[in-house]
Design goal:
This protein has 215 residues and is of the alpha/beta class. Helices cover 37% and strands 13% of the residues. The chain has a single domain, classed as Rossmann fold, CATH 3.40.50.1110. The mean pLDDT is 97.
């Protein structure tokens, strides 16, 4: 059995823009992947609302800095065969990454370095990496989310190119979520149930290939 760590933010946690609660278990994309691949894999879902690549948000209870939390997760869940990282959305807040994809790219590079260079238990190798570019934002009339992310709708289009650049430089696989799903106009950044399922279904093929699982 192969072990996969799905490391992300609210898009991985399964935030429902209709209710502000959580999607049903099998609507969340990590569980869609796990269900499709069955006994061949174990998918560990590590999604947290508001998580950034490497930036602090000190006014919340949970530690949202992905770079600070990731080493503990790698140690806790090893041995790992694959780490899937989908982060960057929350870096575009002005209070974290300054609202630019450039800073998000730098944070993603740090996460990749952590995975590739972590001192795993003797006998365990570094896992493979799949970087998933978040889908671009869309316009929303929801006042709080418009204030948080409205300035970055155009900027979010650059997620694909930024993540592609990191993947090429560090020898990782890459997938663009924007090719298969769209954010909801209810808040401009999250996925409804259909779109998060669609993302999981689209990731089954790349994951199967990376882990050499066959058909």
């Amino acid at each position: 059995m192969k072990t996969i760590l799905a490391f992300g933010d609210s898009l991985t946690w399964g935030y429902n823009p209709e209710t502000a609660l959580r999607h049903e278990f099998f609507d969340r994309w990590p569980n869609v992947v796990g269900r499709a691949l069955g006994h061949k894999v174990r998918v560990i879902s590590e999604g947290l609302n508001g998580r950034t690549t490497a930036f602090d948000e000190d006014f919340v209870a949970a530690d949202r800095n992905g770079a600070r939390v990731l080493p503990t997760l790698l140690a806790s869940h090893q041995p790992l065969d694959l780490v899937v990282i989908m982060l960057g959305t929350n870096d575009l807040k002005r209070s974290t990454g300054g609202g630019r994809v450039f800073e998000s790219r730098q944070g993603l590079e740090r996460l990749v370095e952590i995975v590739q260079c972590f001192p795993y238990q003797r006998g365990y190798e570094a896992p493979k990496l799949l970087l998933v570019a978040p889908p671009p934002f869309c316009e929303t009339m929801e006042p709080d989310f418009a204030l948080l992310f409205g300035h970055a709708v155009e900027e979010s289009i650059h997620f694909r190119s930024a993540v592609t650049k990191v993947a090429e430089e560090y020898g990782c696989a890459m997938f663009d979520a924007g090719e298969v799903c769209e954010t909801s106009p209810l808040d401009g950044v999250h996925l409804d149930a259909e779109n998060t399922r669609r993302l999981g279904e689209a990731l089954v093929g790349p994951v199967r290939e990376l882990l050499d699982l066959g058909d």
